[in-house]
């Protein structure tokens, strides 16, 4: 009788040990899966073509990356020729040098070229690739994601059509208005592309032209 009890006790302890070992192994596997999943999400967050770019910088709010929108103090006035890199509530074109979309000359170092410009929300939007070429910068456009990459020297600017978020040297930064795709070009504020690549923007009323100066 005692031998039977001993055998049953040994069998019980062996089953208990096997069960506990399997549970620990499963727990380790779960932890490993969580770590991989977290790293995968971290890698996705590093990509500038992420889906949450659209509407990232809404008026009067700031997204701190945890999915929560916090109220922020709006900038009451902006300048069409300065990229303040702050969230703006300005939606008026009254301070612009002209109010209608048209061809306007940009002058740099006594060289000038005409570009089609579109007034929008207090900003003058220009075709990114064409202006980049005029400035001696490199550009690359990705049709599927509607992303425009611009670079000159150590300066880099990445813009996605349909959003108001730009990546300046891989730092996510708000633009004063959304860029958009029009006539095979990504249009973005002239202040953004010029200031990002190292130029100051001024308006010459006598020449009816935009003058760029190296910063």
From TrEMBL:
Pfam assignment, any one: Cu_amine_oxidN1
Superkingdom in the source lineage: Bacteria
Ranges where the Copper amine oxidase-like N-terminal domain occurs: 120-211
Span of the signal peptide: 1-27
Composition bias, Acidic residues: 42-57
Keywords per UniProt: Signal
Name of protein: Copper amine oxidase N-terminal domain-containing protein
Species of the source: Niallia oryzisoli
